[in-house]
Structures are given as C-alpha cells and as structure tokens.
Amino acid sequence: MEHKPIVLMERYELGRLLGKGNFAKVYHARNIKTGMSVAIKMIDKEKVMRVGMIEQIKREISVMRLVKHPNIVQLYEVMASKSKVYFVMEHVKGGELFDKVSKGKLSEDAAKMYFKQLISAVDFCHSRGVYHRDLKLENILLDENGNLKVSDFGLSALAESKRQDGMLHTTCGTPAYVAPEVIGKTGYDGCQADIWSCGVILYVLLAGYLPFYDSNLMEMYRKIVKAEFKYPSGFPVEARRLVSKMLDPNPSTRISIPKIIQKPWFQIGFNLKTRNAEVETILEADDFSSVESTSNLLEQRLELDKLCDLNAFDIISLSAGFDLSCLFEKKHQKREVRITSMYPLQTIISKFENVAKKLRLQLTKEGGMLKLEGEKEGRKGVLSIYAEIFEITPNFHLIEVNKARGDTLEYQKVVTEDIQPALKDISSTWQGYEEKSKN
Known about the structure:
Largest sheet: 6 strands, antiparallel
Radius of gyration: 24 Å
CATH architecture of the largest domain: Orthogonal Bundle
Structural class: alpha+beta
Low-confidence stretches: 272-294, 306-334, 434-439
Helix content: 25-40%
C-alpha cells in the first residue's frame, strides 16, 4: 500500500527526516511548483513558548533575513500554523564539516579554502551587526560542490542587543569552542568571540582534533582561560602564528578579521575560484551516517557528549556562576550550590523573599546579588548567604548560592531544609549539597 506524500501548506512535499533537536525537526522537502529541494525546519510552538524562547525564534528569523551570502545557509521563507513555525531553507547536501575532519586532518590548501570561506561569511555577518556565537564544525555544512555554508543562527545576536556598556552579556556557545571572556561575567564583544571560535576551527582543520579538550569540564575551561594548548608536529608555521593570534585569551589584543585577511598565509597560495586536487568530492549527507572513524576528533566529541548533555543555554551552569576565579581555587575550599530555573527573574526573587521572611533573615541587594543575613550570632558569627542570579535568557536563569559568613553546618541546613524546598517547584537542575548527600 502506497503512502500518500505529506504536503505542507499546499506548497512543499515532505521527504525524509534530516535531523532533530529539543524543539525542532528538519525534513528534506520539494517545492511542488518548481521541484527545488529545500530543508524545512519545523519548530514546535508550544515547546518554545513553554521555555520562553519565542523572542529567540523571532531574532533568528530577523538575522537570517539579514545575512544573504554564498557561504551562509539561506532562509527562503517562514510559514506558520497553529502549532508549528516552519523555516524553509536552502538544502545543503554535503553534510557537516565535522564529518569530513573526523576522518583525519585536512591538507593545508583544503583547510585554507574552508577557512577563507568561513572568514568571508563571518566578516559579512559582522558587517550587518550579526554575531553568530556558536561557530563550530557541526554548524558548518558543505554543499555538493564542497563549498562551506555556515548554519544555525539560533544563538546569534544583533548589535542592538548590546547593553549600554557596548557589550553582550548572554553566556552561550559550545564548551570546546567558546571564548574565555564569554564564560566571564563582565561582558564580551561578539566579533572577538566569533574570531576565537574561528581560531579553534582552523586549529581542528589542520590538527584533526580540538585544541582545548579535557574529560573534566572545569579543567577544560581552565585551559581555555589560559589558552593552554600545543601544536602537533607538522602544523604549518604561518598558520600556527595566525592561530596563536586568534586564540589570544585577551580579547583586546586578539587579532581582528581585517588583519587576518592581510596575513601572508591567508593571502598567498590559494585562489578561491579554483579547486584543489586534494579536496575530494563531498559525499551526500546520507552517506556520512555510515562512515566509521577512530580519529581523535571523533573520540573527543564522543567523550564530550558523555561528559555532559548540555544545551547551548546552560553550558556554563557547571561553572561557578560564570566566575572563572573558581577554576584556580583549591579543591578543599567551600562548595557553592547552583540551580537552573526556567522561570522569570521576579518569580525567583519572590521565592528568596519568602525564605527570608520565614527564617527572619534580612534580604538586601548588593551589586546584583541577593544577600540573606541573620540577626543573631551563630557558632561562628552571623550567618550571611549570597544568592546571585544570572540571566541566560529572559526565562532561563542560573542561581548560585554561596556562604559569605557564618557556620558551614548552619549554612548547609538552611540550603537543604529551606532554600531547596522553596525553589523546588521552579528549579530545573540542582547541583550542590543534595548531590553530595546522595553519594
């Protein structure tokens, strides 16, 4: 019995599933009138509304309409039904750049070709006031001719998103590719953060594995902050000099895109209009699924997947509230408690107000932090607790609770018997004393 093809909006005939995420599925489809192949991203309205991501979807649409470039996946149109939002996009058939590199490092000329196309796309985005913020091999596709296409602008930001200090403050990205300043809490420049990620990508193309990798996420962050990595033997000297300037942990001295383009390694030895003989024909997307590889890059990806199932909004929830000072503290120092919540800021604050009222603690705000302080002297002085709330999206927050002063046992009791129950109905994850008590 033949199945009747599904036709969407009387315009597109749906085909096979290409991929899926938490909130969306991507299908191959065919325009009924023109016969053109497209990719359709179906976004579940109810799910994105539940986690407060509607504004992010709107921003992604605005961004993709701004960035029309040969090396960027194109958005053709946006449609909607009562339950779904549909992005009709260019169908890029060659798979992820990751799949190509997972078979081994690329030749210098092939790496240079892809890198030039990447820089061209990123430079164009920046000229339109768009910062990608999640550049990685998995978000770089290849078309049937082997040309690079930057995809997935779901975490991108517009220049208008900057605060009065001229900086971006939302922490997002993918751990192994994220710039050190993005992890911090003082704000960052979107251009410089993207350049760091491009530097990681160039390193991987020429080395075959990530520059910053550790099975311990916090140790990996420490390496990123210090730009602690080594070049393998055979890494081209001029490319090494360029990567070192891109992976400068100080964003104010990190190389800019105009200076990258001026570098001899970038300028000499390759014409983008020609194809290098070593660049093999790109496989169809379906063929990649059958490729088996034991390369360092693939092993690193599998280990990172096992390390933590992190979405792009809470990757830093395992670090102490984005404050990198914890990376250099000794293990015996006190441990903070971290909670993530998909509720608005005022809801979270009201919960702490209820705790303070119940325990007769004074609640004050100090430099963006909530301070709960007792009135009576305890065994080691007056108990003082800090709660700092970090906005990842308007409806996704990370809360870090720390003891400022007082007895540790008294602090633990307040956390486990009062703060935890008070936040239980609005918390998504909880890391701290509850975990320790289970072990």
